Amino acid sequence: MDRLISPAMDSQREGPLIQMRVTFHATIREAAGTPEAEVRAASVWELLLKLRDMFGERLFSMLVEHDALREDVVILINGQNISHSGGLATKLAADDDVAIFPPVSGG
Fold first, then answer.
1. Is 87 buried (19+), middle (13-18) or exposed (0-12) by CB count in 10 A?
2. Is the pTM of the predicted complex or chain greater than 0.85?
3. Three-class HEC string of the chain
4. CATH level 2 (architecture), domain 2-7+15-101
């Protein structure tokens, strides 16, 4: 899905850093070792890079594959799925509430 692919971003900062609360759910929470974190980032892609720096490659690989968000991962910004609002290029604001969910399974 093109909208979820990193827009040729690397670790370069693309705007003013904004601090927000990120909550982790289910297996993502287990990998992070905490239910939430305070992170400073200007976009979702930058947020994911910061999470890699904070929590390691294991967590990052659960979220990102080949510089794109894994299709089975859901990231919500204020309850809105980023796949409907710009994907990894989605800009973040100071009061944003970011929630990261792993694949949903069950029946």
1. buried
2. no
3. CHHHECCCCCCCCCCCCEEEEEEECCHHHHHHCCCEEEEEECEHHHHHHHHHHHHCHHHHHHHEECCEECCCCEEEECCEEHHHCCHHHCECCCCCEEEEECCCCCC
4. Roll (3.10)
Specify which residues 68 forms β-bridges with: 5, 65
Query: Count of residues for the chain?
Result: 107
Q: Is residue 42 a contact partner of residue 19, using CB atoms and an 8 Å limit? A: no
Contact 49, 11 (CB under 8 A): yes
pLDDT tens figures, 23-45:
999 999 999 999 999 999 999 99
- Which residue reads 């604001």 in tokens? 93
